[in-house]
Amino acid sequence: MSDDEKRTFEEIFKQNENKIHYYIHKLQINDTHKEFYVEGLYAMWMAYKKYQPDKGPLSTYFNYMIKNRMIDLIRSKARDEEKTDAYLKQEQIHQDDGNRFGGSELPIVPPTDITISDQTIWEQVQATLTDNQWKWVYYAIIQEMPQKEIAEAEQVSINTVKSWGREARKKLRASGIYSEP
């Protein structure tokens, strides 16, 4: 039985603890939370448990295990950080929708998020418009239908629907109900 096999892990740890610090320094790791130190300690324990004397010296096996476990932890943390960054970027795009109002940095609120629940406003708008212009407001703004579908539903041309929209916007601007940004 060799001398290494007779010694306890605590004795071997005290002799080789500096190897953990050496690899933390060599790999330029900022270990503020001692995660890498604990990983090095665990690697040393696993090396101690799995050590086979016929394969080589224990210190070489410690070096191999500590270094590779720390590199694995660095890679794992980098992957986690990439996933987090990708998620945050996607969430930011979802929040902002990528559209901005004028020269400001304020995001444009998508029309689907704007709801006018006050029925008196819609009644005021309808009173200002002709029947066809109201159809355009109802279908295009409230129902969010494209012009082609409005034309098919009302059995008119797309140009007619565009004309209803132009006239409706003109009347709403004149009445002060609507103003374009």
From TrEMBL:
InterPro entries: RNA_pol_sigma-70-like, RNA_pol_sigma-70_dom, RNA_pol_sigma70_r2, RNA_pol_sigma70_r4_t2, RNA_pol_sigma_r2, RNA_pol_sigma_r3/r4-like, WH-like_DNA-bd_sf
Domain RNA polymerase sigma factor 70 region 4 type: start-end pairs: 141-172
Zinc found in the keyword field: no
Record keywords: DNA-binding, Sigma factor, Transcription, Transcription regulation
Domain RNA polymerase sigma-70 region: from-to ranges: 13-79
A family per Pfam: Sigma70_r4_2
Domain of life: Bacteria
UniProt KW DNA-binding keyword: yes
Transmembrane segments: none
Gene Ontology biological process terms in this record: DNA-templated transcription initiation
Molecular function via GO: DNA binding; sigma factor activity
Protein family per UniProt: Belongs to the sigma-70 factor family. ECF subfamily.
Protein name: RNA polymerase sigma factor, sigma-70 family
Native species: Oceanobacillus limi
